[in-house]
Amino acid sequence: MGTSPPIVVSPPAEDGVAVWLLKRRHEDLGTMFRAVWDYYIKFYTVFLTFSVAAMGWLLTRDGNDSVPKKIHYVLAIVFIAQSMLTATTSASIALYSRRVGREHARVEGDMLGAVAAPSALIGTGAIPVDLAMWSGWANAVAMLGMSVAWAYIGFVK
Fold this sequence. Notes:
Blueprint: H1 14-59, H2 69-112, H3 129-155
Helix pairs in contact: 1-2, 1-3, 2-3
């Protein structure tokens, strides 16, 4: 039994490589967009849950079981910082979503080349840019509101 000769695979033509890269980039942009939003939602949910739970815990203490004011200050500082980080992340996600939506549409245009876009592609996109922008900015505003609430609970109340 002899060995078979190695299989030689010739590289695709240059235009074939470009098309393959465009298709790959198109797919990767959509996959990365979904992954980033998945991680962000988990991050946001955890931060918001801890913040609301701590706020509820502080606000429901009765007079006999009061929490020293020092603890209010420490918790307020920690959760203000956390809320500001989350607000910044939310705004970054909104900007990221806009950028990815534009890049995704540009890659689609490059893949179509001179071919007229089918009517189903005109005015639509696989990435929900408007919803993502709204969600990111709305969450940023909400977390800025949480910072204000924490400042009130920690330093005024």
